[in-house]
Amino acid sequence: MIASSLGAVHVAAALVALALGAAVLGAPKGTLFHRTLGAGYVAAMVILNLSALAIYRLTHHVEPFHLLALLSLATIIGGVTLALRRQPGWLLGHYWNMAWSYVGLLAAACGEIIIRLLVPAGILTGPWEIIGGGAAIAVVFVVLGLIVLPRFQSMATARGPTSG
Questions:
Q1: What residues contact 65, with CB distance under 8 A and at least 6 apart?
Q2: Quick one: which of 132, 68, 131 has its CA closest to 100?
Q3: What is the pTM of this model?
Q4: pLDDT per residue over 138-156, tens digit each?
């Protein structure tokens, strides 16, 4: 259930970011198509994270999820800055920043789905149990990211038509 217009903006931005992020991953790198999809992904992630910083429904003050939103913004800003500056080694840094931003997005989406199932079932009942469940999911995704992302690094950082 979406409780407010801010929540609706947050969910809509998350869905757009999930779709565009997957498309960016599958798009040929260094192309206008990749950059266009990437710009949409970045815009959706900025809206998503800024709206997350304004949501306080669990404890009514700053929570660990707010810190994760700041970390997500940092990865997005880092990835975009590297791509715009194109200094030596930029491509690898861009890959890692953007890849981790998407892993974080997937972790948050999975956490939200699981928590939406476990709270009504009475398995998680308080705000700190929900935060603990979210933290556990984040740890699982960090481990998965550490395993999966290096395997895609060479494919993602191969020189595309304009990646130079």
A1: 52, 58, 131, 134
A2: 68
A3: 0.80
A4: 889 889 988 988 888 877 7
